[in-house]
Known about the structure:
Helix content is 30%, strand content 21%. It is an alpha/beta fold. The protein has 3 domains: 167 residues, 3-Layer(aba) Sandwich (Adenylosuccinate Synthetase, Chain A, domain 1); 89 residues, Adenylosuccinate Synthetase, subunit A, domain 2, CATH 1.10.300; 156 residues, Adenylosuccinate Synthetase, subunit A, domain 3 (Adenylosuccinate Synthetase, Chain A, domain 3, Alpha-Beta Complex), CATH 3.90.170. The mean pLDDT is 93.
Amino acid sequence: MTTLVIVGAQWGDEGKGKIVDRLAEEADAVVRFGGGANAGHTLVVGGEKVVFHLVPSGALHARPRCILGPGMVIDPQVLVKELDVMRGRGLLTEDRVLVSERAHLVTGAHFLVDGLREQGPNAIGTTKRGIGPCYQDRAARRGVRVADLAHPDELRAKVAGLIEAWRPTIEALGGEPPSAVQVADAVLGCADAILPYVGDTTDALHRLRDAGKRILLEGAQGTMLDLDHGTYPFVTSSSVTAGGACTGSGLGPTHIDRVLGISKAYTTRVGDGPFPTEMHGEDGEALRQAGGEFGATTGRPRRCGWLDIPVLRHAARVNGLSELAFTKLDVLSGMETLKLCVAYELDGERVDAPPSVGLERVTPIYEELPGWSEDVTAARSVEALPAKARAYVERVEQLVGIPASILSVGPDRAETIERLDPWR
């Protein structure tokens, strides 16, 4: 029996989808516990790329049950499309997918508010998928939940109520409130396709755990986008850390056995907000092109920079990480010199962790390591890696204080080195 949490240790886009997909083969259930269609998990299997935004990344394996937890905010139209993808691949068998009746639904009104805000002077670079406004409605206790799909009259009343609540904001931003009838119709149009998969996911998870099954909890975004522990206000609207895995799934803290943090071999960020190690000009563009750093959800180019050790230390602390999975090591091949940000300087003082205020003013303190020229994509053991690549990984382990149990040396599922079994 093992319950394993996977979280992003940076600003998201760390390659969580591939690692979850890899580990899901041995899992009995894979669970999304937060976020919504603002997450895009890209999987490459046999050279074919598949992107899921809501369904857990383990969906391409026949074994695990795919669970969408109560902490999620679900775009019903996206969910229907992803269920169709699974059905087309022969993977949507009976009881394969379970959607929490407590999860909230993203509506057209949420999309409208999100888009209008991002056109204004206070834009923070969201994906414009309605996530923030939906979480606001949840906190204000006026949200529409998945369970409401079975009660059309109540759903229509709730939609009308939330649109009226948003009316002053929409009009102040220069928009026109949408028709409550049309918004509700769009949501209810998905009801027949979704309701067969709706149930009590918390009860299902506890039954699986009591039966000694393996449960994989799949995070979205990354620690530095967490509402409490990230670079506020340039953050997402939910808890994306290991603590959020508990509240967003219904499993308690004592039910978690291990927490795996995912980190790229360098750092990326999408949208606005401080990014101490960002590389500008030709160097940043070269890394972006080498790593294919364009958002799976929005297509936006990601900002790229050197690996930030203070960020990883912070992630290790607030998540209680037991180990790291290090992705995109292959992208660094061919770089003559590599830099690791080991600390910051802020107002003349050395700082070893990201400050809650003033991160945009820090100066990175770098340590340089020699790069390697060899192609590492064929390596299937640490010993097969170039000595300089091994030294780079070992130095990161020393600085962060936890081992790297998995090394990803290419985008395909098979291009992976497993040093320790996370299910151990």
